From TrEMBL:
It comes from the Bacteria. This is N-acetyltransferase domain-containing protein. InterPro entries: Acyl_CoA_acyltransferase, GNAT_dom. PROSITE patterns: GNAT (PS51186). One of its GO terms (molecular function) is acyltransferase activity, transferring groups other than amino-acyl groups. It comes from Reyranella soli. Residues 48-195 form the N-acetyltransferase domain.
Length: 197
């Protein structure tokens, strides 16, 4: 459930479920080198603490992934068994950083190798200029790991300003691809409700 008064505008770009259960998307792959990074984020108007979660469990991760990703129809990690997910989380180059305000989940970012794997906020914190600031913290951290180039991707189901936000930070699109996914709103209609509420 989306549970946000912003829902009609934020999700208007997401197509309604199709009878065949397929969901067409376009994925944009981007990259950035340090010289192109433009720090944009002002400190948020609320105190946000970022914790590096050193040994996340699959259950802990699933809650984060669901709370941040469900509105944007993230679901691929939902398909993994607990064992497979835990193996991914235990990779030596994997990092999970969780942002909170007074204990409330603001969002998280996830790093793997030279990739910003996942990045997002919970709905109550969207539109409060926290996103660009948290993105700066993610970029800062991944460059501190010694990488020379950061990779990430976004798709046409994500926040309508996601691609623009990444470009303004200094990422440049390098390629795009069209795919058809299995629509999670058809696979799990009790979880991914439609229309957004």
């Amino acid at each position: 459930m989306h549970g946000s008064p912003l829902a009609p505008d934020l999700f208007a770009h997401q197509p309604p479920p199709r009878a065949d259960g397929r969901l067409p998307i376009t994925i944009t792959h981007l990259e950035m080198v340090r010289a192109d990074w433009t720090e944009r984020g002002r400190a948020p108007d609320v105190a946000v603490q970022i914790e590096h979660v050193v040994a996340p469990t699959a259950a802990f991760y699933r809650e984060l992934y669901d709370r941040v990703g469900r509105p944007w129809l993230w679901y691929e990690r939902r398909l993994l068994s607990d064992t497979a997910l835990q193996m991914l989380l235990d990779q030596p180059d994997h990092e999970l950083h969780v942002a909170r305000h007074d204990g409330d989940l603001v969002g998280y970012f996830e790093l793997g190798g030279d990739e910003l794997v996942f990045f997002g906020l919970t709905l109550p914190y969207i539109g409060r200029r926290i996103g660009p600031w948290l993105l700066d913290r993610a970029i800062e951290r991944i460059f501190a790991r010694g990488v020379t180039r950061i990779d990430l991707n976004t798709n046409t189901l994500d926040h309508p300003k996601a691609l623009d936000t990444y470009r303004k930070a200094g990422f440049r699109p390098v390629r795009s691809e069209s795919k058809e996914l299995r629509d999670p709103r058809v696979l799990w209609p009790e979880v991914y409700r439609w229309p957004p509420k």
